[in-house]
């Protein structure tokens, strides 16, 4: 193969979270030389390394959507990958609980959606739910057996090993500063370490995905808005109150699932997340502020329209962020034994959520394509669950372009 042919066959992947690494791995298995650029000094530094470890079953998503299809398949494939590669995983199941009679209709509708998506889920009465979670308060519950918890950073580490063994060019601390595409379709990607030449490009930059798309000459049509999800952890003496995963019935009028309880792989029980606007795209604390990011958010009409739609719930999320008592009260709806003294702060994550100009959240995975390019512009939860399946979809698209 000539040098020009090698460049034409090669793919540069921007972003070294679980999705970027999965895409690179999939491309390598199909014979494409790959280079992965990650601006941080470690893999999975942002969404992958700050999530709740859950491998979702695919219950919540609209039947026929990419999220539904890829999450259901992804739950099976990510669990299998973990088991085959010695990565910690536990298929523990979860309960979605209706805590009052008015929620039962939504719970039943959720069971119907689960069935439409091919997910095994069983409606339980109060006594049956207590067999799984004795301390939960509910009138009815939905048991979803295939939900799991997975060590996603461990998945990333194993993929890095595979990519390294296969000859992949993996570059940490390598931010992309410019992208040019020539008439020959050859791409030049500028980094502090020099120019990378490739025939194709995949953008898996998460919180920076819209900016990378614009850098490549693509108008994304959406803007990434960062929502910080803050977690608490149950103190050791209260951790017996939760055996596995306990979720509320989602309110279709609200954009997020609500705070829930997850027993992690190390045995601790995490509670959360709530959802507040982050003051920096990678802002994990209130004091993490970026003037550039704030200006971009404030200047985007979609954010103001979103705020107008959800003013009341946004205020509640903000107050809960500032008050341990309010946070504990939200948890006590699910498990009445939990009080403010039972929880301690446990870090946060930031969700890269694409927002339309009209103020609607992009509900499904979103891809933009151009000759030789695929940009993943919306891949929040359940993207980690579906990483191997999304990787196959992206590889199909970029290799045929």
CATH architecture tag of the largest domain: 3-Layer(bba) Sandwich
Whole-number tally of structural domains: 3
Q: Uncertain runs with pLDDT below 50, 5 residues or more?
A: 1-5
The overall pLDDT, averaged over residues, is 95
Total DSSP E strands: 21
How would you name the CATH homologous superfamily of the largest domain? Answer: FAD/NAD(P)-binding domain
The CATH class designation of the largest domain is Alpha Beta
Kindly identify the CATH topology of the largest domain. Answer: FAD/NAD(P)-binding domain
Number of helices: 12
Report the radius of gyration as a whole number of Å: 21 Å
Q: What share of the residues lie within helices?
A: 25-40%
Could you give the distance between the termini? 21 Å
Summarize the biggest pleated sheet.
9 strands, mixed
SSE layout:
Blueprint: H1 3-9, E1 11-14, H2 18-29, E2 34-37, E3 54-55, H3 66-84, E4 89-91, E5 94-98, H4 104-116, E6 121-125, H5 126-132, E7 140-144, E8 148-150, H6 152-165, E9 169-171, E10 178-181, E11 187-191, E12 194-198, E13 200-203, H7 209-215, E14 223-234, E15 245-248, E16 260-263, E17 269-272, E18 276-277, H8 291-298, H9 301-309, H10 311-322, H11 324-332, E19 343-355, E20 366-370, E21 373-378, H12 387-400
Parallel strand pairs: 1-2, 1-13, 2-9, 5-15, 13-21
Antiparallel strand pairs: 3-8, 4-8, 5-7, 6-7, 10-11, 11-12, 14-17, 14-18, 14-19, 15-16, 16-17, 20-21
Helix pairs in contact: 2-6, 2-12, 3-12, 10-11
């Amino acid at each position: 193969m000539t040098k020009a042919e090698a460049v034409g066959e090669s793919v540069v992947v921007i972003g070294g979270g679980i999705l970027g690494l999965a895409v690179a791995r999939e491309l390598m298995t199909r014979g494409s030389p790959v280079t992965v650029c990650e601006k941080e000094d470690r893999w999975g530094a942002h969404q992958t390394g700050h999530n709740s470890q859950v491998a979702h079953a695919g219950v919540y998503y609209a039947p026929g959507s990419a999220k539904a299809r890829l999450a259901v398949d992804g739950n099976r494939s990510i669990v299998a990958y973990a088991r085959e590669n010695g990565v910690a995983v536990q298929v523990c199941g979860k309960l979605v609980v209706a805590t009052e009679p008015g929620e039962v209709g939504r719970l039943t509708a959720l069971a119907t959606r689960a069935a439409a998506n091919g997910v095994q889920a069983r409606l339980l009465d109060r006594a049956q739910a207590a067999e799984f979670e004795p301390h939960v308060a509910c009138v009815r519950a939905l048991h979803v057996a295939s939900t799991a918890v997975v060590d996603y950073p461990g998945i990333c580490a194993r993929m890095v090993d595979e990519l390294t063994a296969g000859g992949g060019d993996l570059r940490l601390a390598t931010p992309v500063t410019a992208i040019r595409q020539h008439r020959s379709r050859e791409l030049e990607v500028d980094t502090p370490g020099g120019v990378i030449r490739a025939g194709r490009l995949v953008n898996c930059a998460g919180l920076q995905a819209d900016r990378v798309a614009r850098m490549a000459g693509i108008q994304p049509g959406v803007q990434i808005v960062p929502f910080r999800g803050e977690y608490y952890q149950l103190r050791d003496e209260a951790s017996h109150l939760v055996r596995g995963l306990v979720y509320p019935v989602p309110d279709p009028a609200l954009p997020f699932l609500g705070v829930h309880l997850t027993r992690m792989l190390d045995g601790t029980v995490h509670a959360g997340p709530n959802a507040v606007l982050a003051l920096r795209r990678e802002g994990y604390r209130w004091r993490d502020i970026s003037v550039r990011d704030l200006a971009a958010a404030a200047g985007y009409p979609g954010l103001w329209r979103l705020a107008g739609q959800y003013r009341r719930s946004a205020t509640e999320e903000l107050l809960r962020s500032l008050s341990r008592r309010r946070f504990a009260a939200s948890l006590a709806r699910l498990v009445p034994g939990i009080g403010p003294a039972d929880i301690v702060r446990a870090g946060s994550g930031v969700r890269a959520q694409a927002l339309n100009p009209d103020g609607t959240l992009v509900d499904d995975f979103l891809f933009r394509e151009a000759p030789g390019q695929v940009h993943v512009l919306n891949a929040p939860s359940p993207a980690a669950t579906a990483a191997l399946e999304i990787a196959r979809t992206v590889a199909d698209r970029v290799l045929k372009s």
